[in-house]
Amino acid sequence: MSDGGNLDYAQARLQARHGARITAADWARLDASRDLQHLLATATATPLSRWTHGLHPEMGPHALEQSLRSEWRAYVAEIASWLPARWQPAATWISVLADLDCVARLAVPQPTPPWMFADPVFGPLAPGSPAERASALMRTEYAPLASVIVGSKGGREAWCDHWRRLMPSMDSETADQLEALASVLRTWSSSSAPLEASLDQLRVALARVFRRASGSGVTAFAHLASTALDVLALRGRIVERAIFGAARRAA
């Protein structure tokens, strides 16, 4: 954990970063991309370039996703470093959201797929039975998620329980802002709307929370949630082109 900055410093940086996010016109250009090579080239001219700079068209879907997870961890660490030290643990834990599917895969008793052994984070945790994997997980920063492997909790539940424990003390106004953010995310997770429509609605709701939470650590959480949506949407487009583009070339 770094000594961190202060909330005024963090707010100024977050405002600049939040204002530089991808636009609807950028998404339209990405959607017009014919294949993965064209998509990645197009993304380099948008605010998404930091997420695609390490990617190339010859990478398989799992390698592409591994790179995106790594970049997400680095991004969350950067944002957390701007905050006062008391807010940093809760902000840093947000990076783990991208890893919940991998943790859940460790709970499956069947042999671990080759792509996981190639992952620098989860490869060392992959050998053995689920119980052995849970024991290995306990020796890492993912220890609060060990209950997912033994089946006593779901990934989101275990993640949320630990996030609440990491949250610093706060005044009632900040607590209300945090609850507003949580309410937005709960509504989205239970929505039956098509993904793109749901994401658009969520972006608007998160932008409202971002503005209202100005000057508190909740602003960083709202920004990270909004950024996660962009990365999620980018990931879907990348994986779709990686899989179906390869199929088209093989046909």
Topology:
Blueprint: H1 7-19, H2 24-31, H3 36-43, H4 49-52, H5 61-81, H6 88-93, H7 100-106, H8 114-117, H9 130-137, H10 146-150, H11 155-166, H12 172-189, H13 195-212, H14 218-250
Helix pairs in contact: 1-14, 2-3, 5-14, 12-13, 13-14
Cα-to-Cα separation, first versus last residue: 51 Å
Q: Over the alpha carbons, how many angstroms does the gyration radius reach?
A: 19 Å
Quick one: overall form? globular
- The total beta strand count reads 0
Task: Give me the oligomer status.
Answer: single chain
| Uncertain regions spanning at least 5 consecutive residues | none
Listing every helix as H and every strand as E from the N terminus to the C terminus, the arrangement reads HHHHHHHHHHHHHH
Content-based structural category: mainly alpha
Tally of DSSP helical segments = 14
Please tell me the overall pLDDT: 90
- Percent of residues in beta strands: under 5%
